[in-house]
Amino acid sequence: MGKQALISVSDKTGVVEFGRSLTERGWTLLSTGGTFAALQEAGVPVTAVSDMTGFPEMLDGRVKTLHPAIHGGILARREDGHLAELAAQGFGTIDLVCVNLYPFRETVARGAPDADVIENIDIGGPAMIRSAAKNHAGVLVLVDPADYELALQDEVSGTERRRLAAKAYRHTSEYDAAITAYLEGDSDELPTRLPPELTLNLSKVAEVRYGENPHQPGAIYRWGGAHGPVMDARVVAGKPMSFNNYADADAAWALCTELAAQEEGMVCVAVKHGNPCGVARANDVRAAWELARDADTLSVFGGVVAVSGRVDLNAAQAMRGTFLEVLIAPDVTPEAVEWFAAKKPDLRVLIAGKAEAVSVLDLRPLVGGFAVQERDTRPWDDLCPEVVTTRQPRDEEWNDLRFAWAVVKHARSNAVVLARGGVSVGLGAGAVSRIWAAERAVANAGERAHGASLASEAFFPFDDVVRLAAGAGVTAILQPGGAKRDPEVIAAANELGLSMVFTGSRHFRH
Questions:
Q1: Are 65 and 124 in contact (CB under 8 A)?
Q2: Cα torsion for 379, 380, 386, 391, to the nearest 10°?
Q3: What is the mean pLDDT of the chain?
Q4: How sure is the predictor about 120, in pLDDT bands with cuts at 50, 70 and 90?
Q5: What is the pLDDT of residue 189?
Q6: Among residues of the chain, what percentage have pLDDT more than 70?
Q7: Is 267:307 a contact under the CB 8 Å cutoff?
Q8: Three-state SS string across 57-81, please?
Q9: What is the set of active-site residues?
C-alpha cells in the first residue's frame, strides 16, 4: 500500500493545492466533512474516512475518526511487529496528518451561544494531532498551511519532523488553554482569577530589533485572544516600534484613557521610562499637548506621548520643536500623517487599536516564574474620600486632587504628584523614600507649586511631606491614610491651613 495522508482542516487555506500536489506524488488522500467536499469539488481524488474504516460517521459527526484504522495507522511504529499487527487487521499506515482544529476561539469571539461554543470543542482533531506528533519519526504532522511546502519535499529531516511535532503540541496546548478559560467562566479566553495553574498562551505578533538593551533579544507576544491598543495599533508614520516604545506607549495610553474617562476635554500624557512626566487636560489636543510639554520640557524630550483626541495638522505642527519617540492617538488626519512623515520621519505615529478580551491579571517576572496579581483597576468612584482636616478642599482643588490621584497611580513608587488647573506641575517617582519623592516633585514644580494639590500613592509615615508641601505653597493633599502617625500628620495639616483627604486605598506600583 502506498503512502496515505489524512487531511481534515477548518482553515482551508491552500488545502486544495496541497492535496492535488500530494496526489500527483502518488499519495492516497483520506478526509472528512467539509474538507472532503472541498477536495472532491476541486476534482482532487479523495477517499472518505468512513469508507476506509467501514464505519459511518455518527452522533452528528462527533464520532468519525476515533477508530483503530485511523489511530492504528498513525501510531504504529515503522517496525516489523507493529506493521504485522496492522496488516493482520487489514489496516495501512497513515504517513501524514494535516489537521487544524474546529474554530473554537473564533466561535467564542463572535459571541455565539454556549451550545455552539461547546459543539466547537474538537475531539478527534487533537487526538489525531497528538498521535501523529508522538509518532513524528514516521508521520508528518501539519497544523499550519505555512508548512505545506515543506511536506512536499522528497525527504523531511528528523530535525524538521521534531520541529513540526513541537509546533503541533503547542497548537493543541493553546487550544486546550482557550477551552479551559471558557469553561472557567471567562468568555474572552483569559483568566480573571488566580487559578491553581496558569497557562500562558502566547503567540508572537511583532519582532523588535532588541529588548531594553542591544544585548537582549526581544519580541512582542499576544496572550490568547487578547487585543491591545498599543500591540494592535496601526503605525501610520515613522520607524518600526522598539521594545521600550511598546512599554512606554502602553503606559501612556493607560493613563490617558483613564483621565479621558473622568470628564470632558482632551488629555495628553507624556511618559519617559515608564513614568508620566507631563500630563494635562485642555479643551483641544494642541492645548493639552502644549501644557503637558511645558510641565517638564527636559523629561518630555525623547518621550512617548498619548492623546485622547484626533490629531490634526494644527496639533501636529505644535510638536515641531520637541523630539519624541512615539505619538499614539485614537485618530490622526491624513494631513497630519503627511506632515509627520516629512518633518519628523523618526517619530512613530500610531492609531490606537481596541482593547478586547484583556485579562485582569498582571504578571511580573521572577527568576523561575512570575508574581501574579489582579490589575489595579479600582476607579475613583469606588473610593469614599474622607476630609480629615478642618479646612475643606475647594472645588478646583477637588478637581486637581482627583487628577493627581490618577497620575500618581501610574507612577512608580514611591511617587508624589503635584497638579494645578488640570496639569501635572511636579512629579517625583521611583524614589526609595517618600520625602525624597516629595522633594523631587516640589523642586520640579518650582513656583508652580503655589496653589497646587498633592497626591501620594501611599500614606505618610511622618508629617515631613506635609510641612514640605505647605512651605512650597501646596494647599490640598490626597493620600490613603492608615499610618500610625496619622494624628500627627493631620495636626500638621491643620496647623498649616491645608486641606487633607484620605482615600483609604493605596496604589503601590513597583
A1: yes
A2: 160
A3: 86
A4: confident
A5: 47
A6: 92
A7: yes
A8: CECCCCECCCCHHHHHHHHCCCCHH
A9: 134, 273
Residue 225 grid coordinates: 485572544
Backbone angles phi, psi at 372, to 5 degrees: -125, 135
Task: Let me know: does 433 contact 460? Beta carbons within 8 Å.
Answer: no
Q: Is the peptide bond before 244 cis (omega within 30 degrees of 0)?
A: no
Tell me the three state secondary structure of residue 292.
Answer: helix
What does the DSSP 8-state code read for residue 393?
P
Whole-Å CA distances, 193 to 198, 225, 341, 361, 377: 10, 17, 44, 7, 14
CB 9 within 8 A of CB 98: yes
User: How many residues belong to the chain?
Assistant: 510
| pLDDT score for 428 | 92
Bridge partner residues of 204 (DSSP):
221
Is the model more confident about 284 or about 151?
Answer: 284
Report how far residue 470's alpha carbon sits from residue 450's, in angstroms, rounded to the nearest whole number. Answer: 9
For helices 33-41 and 15-24, give the axis angle rounded to 10 degrees: 70
CB 404 within 8 A of CB 426: no
Query: Please, are residues 447 and 499 in contact by the beta-carbon 8 Å criterion?
Result: no
**Paired residues of 6 in beta bridges:** 30, 97
How many percent of the chain have pLDDT more than 90?
A: 48
- Residue 63: how many CA atoms within 13 Å on its side-chain side? 8
Cell numbers describing residue 237? 508614520
Q: Contact at 8 Å (CB) between 111 and 156?
A: no
Q: 149: burial class by Cβ within 10 Å (0-12, 13-18, 19+)?
A: exposed
